[in-house]
Amino acid sequence: MGLRELKRERTRRLIADKAFELFSDHGFGRTTVEQIAAAAEVGPSTLYRYFPTKETLVLEFVEESLMGAVAWFHEQPPVDLPDGLQAVIEHVLDQLDANPDRVRAVYDLADHTPSVSAQLNDLIWQFRNALADELTGRLSGQDPQLVEFTASLSAGSVMNIIETVVRMWVDNPDGVEVKVLARRAMGLLRGGGIPLPGTASCPGDNAVHGP
User: Fold this and answer.
1) What is the CA radius of gyration of the chain?
2) Alpha carbon distance 18, 38 (integer Å)
């Protein structure tokens, strides 16, 4: 990353961090873009170049965790489908687990702010679709429809596990560990407790291939 890109990333991170401080102190609805810009020592026009809406400020951390996992998976070598799905789940949860207070603040804002909730749901579906596209490119088989079907079901399973695990973790901050929950969920998938499309559904291959 060059110096210009590094500076932009630092500015983006500073704006998001200051926004979260203000949202936590004053509430989402009572915090203005002008207040966020002043706290980050940038102009409102600069803020809008990085974050077109207040909702994107709230969800920047979640978006990086989700879409960053898909980008990371794209660079990985071939792997069996269940192992690949577990790797993606654990990569996302590693990112979220590194900043639990921020994750809980996101969900608290989403619970009380319809626009944040709607954009969070959209973001989760963007992740699901991006992962399905990645899996479609990795799986091989004689029937393209079957490949697409398997990829879509697998991505949906990943999305549901992450949503369920994170919600339980958020609602029970002292009672559960996020990685323990994720491993339990994958254990159910692998053991047949939750239906999981198997690689046998895609003839001729037992792995999801790398780029």
Assistant:
1) 19
2) 9
